[in-house]
Amino acid sequence: MRTAAVFFIMLISALAIAEEVERYPARPIRYIVASAPGGIADITARVLGPVLAKALRQPVVVENRPAGGVMVGGDLVAKAPPDGYMLLSVTPQIAIVPSMNRNFLFDPRKDLAPVALVGLIPNVLVVNARTPAHTVGELVELARRNPGKLNYSSTGQGTSVHLAAELLKYHSKISIVHVPYRGAAAAMNALIAGEVDMMVESMLPLLPHIRSGKIRPLAVTTAQRVPQLPQVPTMAESGFPGFEMSGWTGVATTGGTPAAVVERLEAEIRNALASPEAGEVLVRAGVSLHFLGARDFASFLDFEIDKFAHAIRHADAKIE
Length: 320
Prior knowledge:
Blueprint: H1 2-23, E1 29-33, H2 40-56, E2 60-64, H3 69-78, E3 86-90, H4 93-100, H5 108-111, E4 112-121, E5 123-128, H6 136-145, E6 151-154, H7 160-172, E7 177-180, H8 184-193, E8 198-202, H9 203-212, E9 215-220, E10 247-254, H10 259-273, H11 276-284, E11 288-292, H12 294-313
Parallel strand pairs: 1-2, 1-3, 6-7, 6-8
Antiparallel strand pairs: 3-10, 4-10, 4-11, 5-8, 5-9
Helix pairs in contact: 2-10, 2-11, 4-12
């Protein structure tokens, strides 16, 4: 009798879950951004949110949770009920920070369910206009002739652009000095002023300074050349095969969320990116649209976590 009662309870529970999935979404969805307003994670959420709300016929409320960054904001989503009512705007930080902090609160691979990759943000290796190097090869040779004398700026320790420069340093066996700044504007101003020799940064804020001649692009870190800089080769074309480290933006939810809910969200994000309200706006914000569904995004995230772990092992990034 007890076995029958347990089976009955399990059946009722399963039916309730199935009904909840069938009705999804039946209430507002929270869209967590684990950073301050203005960054690509925030832009992605604020562009996709209204389009998803219209398609899902429920409010999608964007919430910025910058305190503690991806550690705290991500943990909020990771520990939520696995029902698809809480989304997380994800960027490379979700793949970087676990390797830099021994006390990271959750496992992105287990505790989050990837929903969709939205797009890539091309990075560009640039030098000050007075730096004599015009190619990556020339820059590497210059650094080898002057070990420890060239330096590069970044937007901070452990960022994807910092680690991209560290990978160049590792693969080319050169000695260059990292000078972190608080934000992209300060790092860029240092480069333009000649306080540093080079930097890797996302393409969009670099374009005006490239076009004005204040800085010189040597290579893009994407797998293919980018339309905005068609004359600039990739790192692979510059003698570093397999070197790819772009920014990216995507959407995740709580691990264990029913597949049907993830598939619904995935489909609506795909549709949103095909719409002018979302796709064209993201492109203007510097995103190269590159949709991956849940399964492919999970594989992509695995690769990114391993890649950044490798970069961190060979960088001066602090492990806390």
